[in-house]
What we know:
- By secondary structure, chain A is α+β, with helices and mostly antiparallel strands.
- Chain A has eight helices and 37 strands.
- Chain A starts with a helix and ends in a 5-residue tail after the last helix.
- Chain B folds into two domains: 1-35; 41-176, no CATH class.
- Chain B is elongated, with a radius of gyration of 24 Å.
Amino acid sequence: MTFEAKGPLTVCAVAALAALPAWLSAADAVHVRFTFYEPSLSPAAVRIGDECFLAVEAASRLGWSATQRGDRVIVRDAAIETTLPLRRVGGTAYASLSKAAEAFGAHASWKDDRTFEVLATVKGIKVEQGRIAVETSLPVQPNTFVLDTPPRLVMDLRGAVLVPSKPPKVEGAVRFSQFQPDTVRVVVDLSAPPRLAAKPSTSRSLVASWSSASPVAGAGPAPPIRVKSVELAAETDGETILRIPYQGPRPTRITTARDGNGVVWVRLPNAQREEADDVGAALSSTVLTSASLERTPWGDLGVRLEMRRPMGVTVSPTETELVVRIVRPKNSSLALSSATLFVDAGHGGKDAGTQFALPDGTVVREKEIVLPIAQMVSQMLSGERATAVLTRDGDFDPGLYARAEMANSSSAHFFLSIHANSNKVVDSMSGTFVYYHGDDMDSKVLAECIAAEIGKVSGLPNHGARSDYTLYPNKGLAVLRTANMPAVLIEVAYVNHAKDRQLLVQPEFRKRIAEAIVKGVEVYLGVDT
Amino acid sequence: MSTRRRGGTAWKGALLLVLTLITAGLVLYVKYGLPGWKPTPESVNTQQPATTSKPPLQVTVPVAKANEGTIEWSTTTVQGIEGEDPVVTAVNAFLASTSIVPEQARLLGVSYEGGVIDLHFSPEFAATYGTDDENTLLRGIFRAVQENSNAKAIRFLAGEKQIETLGGYDLTGEQPADLFSRK
Lengths: 529, 183
């Protein structure tokens, strides 16, 4: 009886002890995301402290070879090899994946507690006549295609990341940025639509070629410009002028962009810093706190302008210097209480805007989503704070032109049109765009202020401010073109994206968006700075 | 003899008059057509127009492919339809490929006047769409016209009325066919 009672317990205890090492090992097993794919590793990679370890026998799954030599492991990737200490876990030989990735010039980090990500870094980009060559530290998955208005060749490098401490060596006129968390986008601006002659496939040496066009900056790699200093040339009430002397060919493509912190960047895609100078310093200016030459968040070099309040920025290159005009945007000196704002809920009546049919037969309509947001914006601004007028307060369509005409005839100071977007493929696009008309600087600043505030609260991708000329060259959107005051069209989110749609129908989300729109206007007016 | 000569002259004169009238009638018919006839969307010219530069057998259709939020454009070639204008074939093939418009939305026919092409759409097409979708639709339609005709301008109609907008872009009046390719 006694033996019979103890027998099962003993068996269970022995089995549990036997399984313990395997259980401990499995508990530490982690996923590895390697550039653009998730390899199936057997034995699995493990986490020890902050490091990720790769089983020696699984190294081939990453395209590497690993050889055990005593208490060391030699890991080879292409022409590079590194020797790492061997570590045994449950009888299996491991080497540090973190250290191997670092030795091979890759960027490795923990995405979460159980997912380790290794991304390639971009080592070099070279653009010559009709050809682009990109070198990455590990093989990446390229997607090369052509976009128009303006014509440009785009190469997306899936599985790559830009690391500020390892900037790529760049030759020629090219732009690049972190397009997605795991995708670097490289763009060559062209003077005419190109015809792709060769596209690269998965590799670490990527070459694409095209015909019928040459880079805007001219044939062959454009020589870089060298920026020497940033100087305050003049300042009057409402206008500040900076001079940035440079050496080299006259720059052809200078853009400005505002980041989420109210800093304006003058992007110089083909610039080099003069020696190792830290160009720029604090300026004695009423609108600027500093101006300095730094690497931009998009990877190129630029002048970082830190403002006391949102200002419009234009850049005119001469043969010897860049002249940066910083001007106070229209109506930004107003007190909020004396401002009149027209708030336009897009569509209405028979014009439903974009629609999305749910499986239960319910239809989500743009006109019904944007009206409550517009009403909330109006309510938040009304009363003693400002004068807010809705172009529609019910389900009717005032007409394409009547909306801006109402604002024009009332001498309104701002026009805010609220919309929701949709894209060709369901669930393919998410987030917020804020459009302004053409190259209207005042509207652009307002769009940037509102986009930045929405980006802080929406929880969705913030695509920032964008000219409506990117949609319709030289014409833009009717409602923005005809408004006489700073005017923006806010595409809050995508009706045909599940995450966006779930948020768009929530009153709480709409309220957050309405508050962000109001905050954006306040930032434009300097209320919140 | 003299009587016979007089009768022969009268007969020739009458014949000349009849021939003159027939010729004048033919000239007027060619120039103005039958009185009271007016083209409608159902009866518009769907034959190969004089301004079309490409043979009707091969039609170039724009293709919009979504790639992580960006639309990539290319073209494909399809067999033309006997008796149908290549612009009609191309636009309808493009619309069917986009899944943006309702299933019944179609280009019914086209008519040409000078360098202007009138696109006669079914009423289902004349709705409003999201900004990105509207832009994709218009880029595809403009490209279909440019690839398959020599039209310099485009008018958008549904039920004989001009379409005002498909969302935010003003479509009234004549639109330059090279809207999206101009600098």
